[in-house]
Amino acid sequence: MDNNKNESLVKKGSLWFPEKASTEAYHVDSLFNFILWASIIMFIGITAVLVYFVRKFKRTKDNMVAQAQIIHNVKLEIIWTVIPLIITLFIFYWGIEGYFKMTVPPSNAMEIRVTAKKWMWQFDYASGTKSIGELVVPVDTPIKLVMSSEDVIHSFYAPNFRIKRDVIPNRYTRIWFEANRTGQFQIFCTEYCGDGHSDMMGTVRVLSGADYEKWLKEGDSGADMPLDKLGEKVYNSKGCATCHSTDGSAKTGPSWKGLYGSTRNFNGGGSTKADDNYIRESIVKPAEHVVAGYQPVMPTFAGILNDREINGVIEYIKTLK
Ligand code: CUA
Questions:
Q1: Average pLDDT, the chain
Q2: 153 CA: nearest ligand 1 atom
Q3: What is the CA radius of gyration of the chain?
Q4: Which residues line ligand 1 at a C-beta cut-off of 6 Å?
């Protein structure tokens, strides 16, 4: 699944909101719209009364002194206290009811673990399947996300489902949603977490129940793909593209263009020629030899990429001359 950075998945929808894709989205939007329109109506009403009074009680040549001073009116005070009170209580009730609903996952929710790290999202499914950068879920099923960070604070935001929650190191936070339509939807990180923050994106792929079972069993193994094509797919789908360019431009990590066979100088001295063994080491033990001028921020991909995928990445890098 290509993660085309130039094409936002949230552009469809209304002026205020991206498309709705979860059961709770409707509640969030209706409360928002109620508060928005109540505010607009009150703003217009108050401004109109204000302008009317300014004109009516204007000081003129014939009327230099203010007219009879009204300093108290019990009826008016009760009206302008009780009406806003009813409106705010109504909004409070509506809001807290929705908050509880969105906070407490249904007991039959399917649990998926989310691990955030600079700068990727990793998803662990009960079956043992893992995915990077793409959360795959079945439609019409409540999904509970149990989230934690390996480094700094991140925040999981899926606008189409109207859910957002901080992802914190050394603690689990949870959030749930039920997708009510299939398709592909955007995930953003909404807590500033360093250089790669704005590229720390992901997608939610909502599949039918049958397709989801199939995906769990077979995954996106790419068993029938040539190695370099598989490597390109890994580059786009497993988070490599966040930090490594393929056109020679510098990002958080060194570009892959012209990497194979080049001489790498390391932080703290030493150098080597970038061959298959060096690239493999950089993927599974990235902190071992850090290229001069870069920070040791890459997480290990040991256990995340299988051997065939690592070989694919190496073959893909060979094609980037
Ligand atoms: Cu992770 Cu911003």
A1: 87
A2: 1
A3: 28
A4: 116, 119, 154, 189, 191-193, 197, 200
